[in-house]
Design goal:
about 220 residues; 7 helices; binds benzoic acid
Length: about 220
Amino acid sequence: MPGGLLLGDEAPNFEADTTVGRIRFHDFLGDSWGILFSHPRDFTPVCTTELGRAAKLAPEFAKRNVKMIALSVDSVQDHLAWSKDINAYNGDEPTEKLPYPIIDDHKRDLAIKLGMLDPDEQDGQGMPLTARVVFIFGPDKKLKLSILYPATTGRNFDEILRVVDSLQLTAYKKVATPVDWKHGDSVMVVPTISEEEAKKLFPKGVFTKELPSGKKYLRYTPQP
Ligand code: BEZ
């Protein structure tokens, strides 16, 4: 895939037409976290379920200070017409505004720049469609996490919320979140912290699991 973003890269400050008018990406993000997620095509089944779920979860993203924005290789006109179907799928009034804008990338400029195109998934004219990409940016506008799914596999937006919780916690505390972690579960003390430092940093206590290696790296502490 040409183009693309790697962890730590700054989000490009692109200008684009969206369902809420023309935006400049950095101005759109402001000081918030941001999630930019692409889908293959408007008026397709899996995409409708995904964008419907994203709309339902919008208040949860807002609570976490995360701005949401979607993108596909369709026009604003199509996005607006399709929004009515998404609302109907959600059981909402068709004319309701979706709680996030959708970017018009019918020329594929952004999809190419951001490495979002899936060469195996094409429209009737043989033009590639956008894959199901998720980019999560921090308030510094740097890429903190990316997810890439093919057109045939819908994403789990609860998982995206879960990773936002992990990213936001670990951005400010010297911890990492273990397998299947969810908000409120115990977390791991990162390996670079000494035992002495860990005692000071985590007054709720540190539990170290004994291991056959004798190494003391499996250290849990309640979520700070
Ligand atoms: C869908 O959203 O259902 C879809 C879109 C493109 C290819 C396959 C499935």
